[in-house]
Amino acid sequence: MISQILEAAFISGLIGAMMRMATPIIFATLGEILAERAGVLNLGIEGIMLMGAMTGFLVSISTGSLWFGVLMAALVGMALGLLMAFLSVHLGLSQHVSGLGITLFAAGLAMFIYRLHFGSPTVPPTVKPFQQVTIPLLSEIPIIGPGLFKQYTLTYIAWLLVPAISILLYKTNVGLKIRTVGENPIVADTVGVNVVLTRTLCLVAGGALMGVGGAFLTLAHQNMFLIDVIGGRGWVAIAMVIFGNWDPVKGTLGALIFGCLDGLQLRLQGLGIKLSFHLFLMIPYLLTIVALVSVSRKASVPASLLKPYRREEKGS
Amino acid sequence: MRLRIVKREPLPGWARIVIPIAAVVATLILSAIPILIAGGELWKSYFYLFYGALGTRFNLLETFVKASPLLLTGLAVAFAFRAKFWNIGAEGQLLAGALAATALGISLTGLPSFMVLPTVIVAGFLAGGLWAFIPAILKTKLKVDDVVSTLLLNYVMVHIMGALLFGPLQQPGSSWPRSSEIIAAAKYPILFTRSRFHLGILIALLAVLVIWFINNKTTFGYQNKAVGVNLRAARFGGIHTNAVILWTALISGGLAGLAGVGELCALQYRLIMDISPGYGYSGIVIAMLGNLHPVGVLFSSLFFSIIIVGAQTMSRMTGVPVYIAEVIQGMALMIMLIFLLFTEYRVKVVRK
């Protein structure tokens, strides 16, 4: 048994599975980081991902174009991000409750539209999903090559987004504005940064990433839409943001750990090892709670997270 | 010219009753959009929505059956939110209650039968309460954000339940993740013939009274509110705020646990993975719509169970997908939030 696990094919397969399982969580985590860095906790994530998954699937099956499906999933994610911005930023409502409202609403809407369009067939409709793209040379590296470089295009995009968003946040003027808005909106306002606009744009852009993360699940990871297709991955992303200290690279690391555990439990079961996959899947949540304990002692959380900003309240 | 949101004078007391009603009416009106998109005839759809929930004896009683878990999780969330303990974890606490009820309901064969049900109920309450106690300890002792910890613990509980249902609690000989059936003495009595109207509904209604009493007539209720209004002031005022939060969590989780006991001992009789279709999350909406007041929660849970039960008849008669119930829930929450905002603020037109 142990020798099987140490075999090159097993490890290579595990790396591939880890990358695949991590992809939607990387998208969602990056989207959530954008929102939270600007000071808004977006608990609408789970619903936005489900809506993205449904939209991507529906549009792809109707138009025959997978990429058009992905694009529409991003647009729907943006629309829901805008709705979140309207409630939590423009009206300044409780971020917790507006986010949960978005999740309930978007999840309900996704199932509603799916049922409306497809009815309830005995065999769920399927789409011809994305194929993996092999990168020449790199994919021939022993052991790690096939896992890392024979992946879906969306997975590569997720990987490129990690440094892109890091650079955006830490190296650009825009990133400085976003972080200032998240840390101290009064200061940001004083130096002429539009707090409401910045938060809105971050929620909209973040929503696009969440939508695409959802679409990955129905267009690449699977080829159909099931009601529990997201299965709490949005909440995992919320956890990974904290686990990763609001940093895109560390958050991605968390997503990889999650993907690895997810891939490992499937594979160990495949080998006939009798273990409870439920105990396995519990680990990321427990790890995050431990991370929460250590985070609460540090000041890495954006200082104005959860605080609505109203100009009138300035100085009061 | 632009719009600004500014503080307003406090509204009179009647507004606290009128506003939720207005939110419900607005939600029902806006529900016309998805109904029309789905091609449902408007009046026919509304008719069957209400007829399906209230029109026949069986359906009316079924609406109460559906309302009881919603009422308990709604109360659980409302009681926690009142102290600003952000308990998003009613779902996990409900499952903890159902799990405890299952474990005891299967194994308490040696106990005199009149003692079985009270034991199961108390155990379910304690299991839910303890599951809420963990994030409360994390919040008070280690300053861990309660929203995220309660949310995550829901999934931990789902996986604990999964591990047990594929392990020690699995029905012998079954390959499905389900437990054996609980013994007869652990089942809730049915109170009306030819219906599923069970003891748990009375327990839920009793809980409304108890929470109302705690809120309005006890020192603890006063302290719970004081902690919610201003934690620091409460502490300076000599209230042991940490103790208040811990007790609040225990009661809140316990109420959600009772919802789990009810679903198990009155309806399912055996534990299955999808014992709750998200009652814990609906509880958040219900608590908000009920303005965190126990009587408000009673009415909002009835409103939601009408929507959920009625949507099935509406769906059968008009072809509008049954998931309209979820869409309406989400809309109701957002509309109520916006309406509540305008009890404290008003829109002012600013000319530049």
What's the gist of this structure?
With 316 residues, chain A is mostly helical.
What count of helical segments of chain A does DSSP give? 13
- Give the biggest beta sheet of chain A: 2 strands, antiparallel
Going across the biggest sheet of chain A, name each strand in turn: 1-2
Question: What do the pLDDT scores of chain B average to?
Answer: 91
For this structure, the quaternary state is heterodimer
Number of strands of chain A: 2
Strand order in the largest sheet of chain B = 1-2
Q: Round the Cα radius of gyration of chain B to an integer and report it.
A: 21 Å
Tell me what portion of residues of chain B adopts beta-strand conformation. Answer: under 5%
Share of helical residues of chain A: over 70%
Secondary structure category of chain A: mainly alpha
> Quick one: which chains have the greatest interface?
A-B, 46 and 51 residues
- Give start-end ranges of low-pLDDT stretches of chain B: none
Percentage beta strand of chain A: under 5%
Q: What's the SSE pattern of chain B?
A: EHHHHHHHHHHHHHHE
Q: What can you tell me about this protein's structure?
A:
With 316 residues, chain A is mainly α. In chain A, helix 2 packs across helix 11 (233-243). The mean pLDDT of chain A is 88. Chain A has a two-stranded antiparallel ribbon with strand order 1-2. Helices cover 71% and strands 1% of the residues of chain A. Chain A has 13 helices and two strands, in the order αααααβαβααααααα. Chain B has 352 residues and is mainly α. Chain B has helices spanning 15-30, 32-37, 42-54, 57-82, 90-107, 113-142, 146-165, 199-217, 219-229, 231-236, 241-268, 279-289, 294-318, 324-344; strands at 2-7, 345-350. Chain B is built from 14 helices and two strands; from the N terminus they run βααααααααααααααβ. The radius of gyration of chain B is 21 Å and the shape is globular. Chain B has a two-stranded antiparallel sheet. At the A-B interface, helix 5, helix 11 and helix 13 of A face strand 1, helix 7, helix 12 and helix 14 of B.
